[in-house]
Amino acid sequence: MTKHAINNIISVFILLLLFAFSFPAQAEESQYDFDMSEFEKKPYEFGGLAGLTPALILPDQEAASYRLKYFQDGDLPNLMNLLDLELMLEGSYRSGNAALKGRVDSFMDYDGLEWDHRIVVQEAFLSVQDSPAFVVNAGKKVMKWGKGYAFNPVAFLDRPKDPNDPELTMEGFYVAHFDFIRSFPGALATLAVTPVFVPILGTANEELGDENGPNAALKLYVLLWDTDIDLMGMAGVSVKPRFGLDISRNILPNLEVHGEGAFRHDEEKALLTSSGELKNEKHDVVSSLVGVRYLAPTNTTFIIEYYFNQSGYSKEQTETYYSFAQDAYQIYGESENENPIKMAGKASKSGYGRPYHMRHYAYARITHPEPLDIVYLSLAFTGMINIDDGSFSAFPEMGYAGVENFEFRLKAGATYGPPESEFGEKTSDFKADLRMRYFF
């Protein structure tokens, strides 16, 4: 049975379970009877959203990523239409001190050539809270480790965020964890210990490692002198040891500083040689992030972060990859020999094609609500600079939430960089989209 089939079965099971709890049996009483239970908090909750996002992109037909993706499709239009459809369902059922929670997201995407669809069980877990000081969770769950807004080096049990939209919901991993929480008077106000069991079995948590077996993680949280501090570690049969630290503090009522640092033992990275061969190397690597969040008197929020990833590719290694990809496309055009371009595609999937695959980045996010006192309107800007090669992206946006249960966001922007730079070799030079969501 394939991974997609398993996800579909789990998705249907969760939806049926939540629907079953959402429709209690009707008592055979007069419709005019007054029942105080109608005013009590129901044990179940159910909701979700439906989204529609049409987009226009101006493709960069000279870019390496464009040529790798569309090399067999011939001449494509200079302006491409894209469409994303989304339906997310989430719900919970509570009985006593136990709660069952689930969230399923389904997508249909049109990339200008063909449709694709997928169903993702983002979360499905059981939570039992025996007391305010002890909580047990088991199932598929998003852990949300780290203090960074766009990047989280210490998020050993979370999937990478999309820095262009970090607040999007994400898919979790299968875990079982406990939270032991204690409060104290004095400088040490709170202490929390979170041991986590993380098995890898078949397709379950396969992104964390190649070998089946048990793995464990531990997070220690303290609120010390009004400073949030986390210490975490992870190791196991299929996961090499890794350790992390994050910290956050409000040094002024409107100014917060945060940082993260992580060490990973024997991190594996695929390197492309000039001949097109991939060789795997293992190194001990560190990654870190520092950032600030500032709320100005104008109610404008500024988030600025610097991210360093030692396991990323250097400028020279990236240039070797882009040069090989362009040469492979040239060979295909002259002889229709697909072998070199398939080798470039393999290198892309091995690491060179992942977003933000280099080492040094600067990130900025600026948001401003109700400009010119226009209620429900908001403005924002997201920018990213690759410090290694000087390429960058810039995306302003405008949101409106003045219609009940609806949300609209218009976003447009561009990527820029010289040849053989990360943003200069993106599939498109310009993109604009209108995201429309209905919440229920």
Describe the secondary structure blueprint for this structure.
Elements: H1 3-22, E1 44-59, H2 64-70, E2 80-95, E3 98-110, E4 115-131, E5 134-141, E6 173-183, E7 188-197, E8 215-224, E9 227-236, E10 242-252, E11 255-272, E12 278-295, E13 301-309, H3 315-335, H4 339-352, E14 360-369, E15 377-386, E16 392-400, E17 406-416, E18 428-439
Antiparallel strand pairs: 1-2, 1-18, 2-3, 3-4, 4-5, 5-6, 6-7, 7-8, 8-9, 9-10, 10-11, 11-12, 12-13, 13-14, 14-15, 15-16, 16-17, 17-18
Helix pairs in contact: 2-3, 3-4
Write structural notes for this entry.
The chain has 440 residues and is mainly β. The chain is built from four helices and 18 strands. It has helices spanning 3-22, 64-70, 315-335, 339-352, and strands at residues 44-59, 80-95, 98-110, 115-131, 134-141, 173-183, 188-197, 215-224, 227-236, 242-252, 255-272, 278-295, 301-309, 360-369, 377-386, 392-400, 406-416, 428-439. The chain has an 18-stranded antiparallel beta barrel. Strand 4 and strand 5 form a beta hairpin. Helix 2 packs across helix 3 (315-335) and helix 3 runs antiparallel to helix 4 (339-352). The longest helix is centred in the C-terminal third of the chain and has 21 residues, at 315-335. The radius of gyration is 24 Å and the shape is globular.
What share of the residues does DSSP label as strand, in percent? over 45%
Q: Using DSSP, what is the number of strands?
A: 18
| Element-level helix/strand string | HEHEEEEEEEEEEEEHHEEEEE
Question: Rg from C-alpha positions?
Answer: 24 Å
Low-confidence stretches: 1-32
CA distance, first residue to last residue: 34 Å
Mean of residue pLDDT values: 90
The rough form would be described as: globular
The number of helical runs is: 4
Structural class: mainly beta
Estimate the helix proportion, in percent.
10-25%
